[in-house]
Automatic annotation (TrEMBL):
One of its GO terms (molecular function) is magnesium ion binding. GO terms for cellular component: cytosol. It comes from the Eukaryota. InterPro entries: 5-nucleotidase (IPR010394). Residues 1-29 form the signal peptide. This is Cytosolic 5'-nucleotidase 1A-like. The keyword Transmembrane helix does not apply. Keywords: Signal. GO terms for biological process: adenosine metabolic process; nucleotide metabolic process.
Amino acid sequence: PQALARLGTSSINVFVVVVVSCCTEQLSGYCVFVLQKDSAQAVTIAVSSRAIFDLEEEHELFLAEGMGNYTSHQIAHENEPLAEGTALPFIRVSAPKAMVNEKLLENNPEEKQLFDIILVSNNNAQSGLRIINSIKHYGLHITRFCFLNGIDPSKYLQSYNVKLFLSANESAVCSALKRGIPAALVIQQDVQTAAEQLRVVFDGDCVLFSDESENVYREKGLDEVIKYEKDREHIPIGEGPLKAFAMILGNMKKKFPREKDPICTYLLTSRSGRDMGVRAIKTLRDWGLEVDQAFFLDGAPKDPILAQIRPHIFFDDSTHHIRGALASGTPAGYIPPCDKS
């Protein structure tokens, strides 16, 4: 009913929705869901097929020759696994039956705040079979798939209580952000990540925090934004697009003693610690959000720190820092400006 409620009435739409409570491995497409232990409390991450797999050559084929030839290509190669994409390491540790969920259930067998994954794709059902086969090839316990045949996925994300959306399509990311859903643009690259913990790095302004201080800096310069921050040290900074997801991770972390915590979070900001760090720290305190490590770099490059952390994903709104992350082999999620000038 939730999915059907999202359909508009301005045109005739034909959808096949399959709802099952068993394994979906033999199904080849459509919108396929598995009943969860508690979907209301699940931490649902939606990820696109181009974010989790390297589909860049296939995407170029689609752009050059259209859906028909693209679908034929995917059918002809449906038994050939796709190469790993940028978001796959992050999904590998946060998918159902993966490391973080296992640790949560070891800690509390009745735990209901567990990661769940929905794979959302612009593929149609026929071309989507290669994606399902690739999921199985990498041993990922992902059982929920939406093959939308080019339809904007953002209108479905709220229906399924999605807490984070990762996509290689900037338009889809912006649509999700405008609906208030934490989202980031994933760029295909070779990555190097740590294995022992889920490591997530957040930029400060425009990511964890709102863009208020960033706007003052752009309009009036560094001296004025330092004064602005000092005058407002007692006032929490506004919420940024990834704050809600960071709070979820923070809540999960509180369930573990530090030495057994399967999640490690970081603040990596260009703010000066002396001049602009106080308000940031007090804001985190006001939110009740603890991060494991915080770096105030005063404009210095972030990639040397990222190379040491080796996170599963790094969220930032600066193309400069995203390029640095790509160069260091860090999986990056870019928060685009969307309709900002």
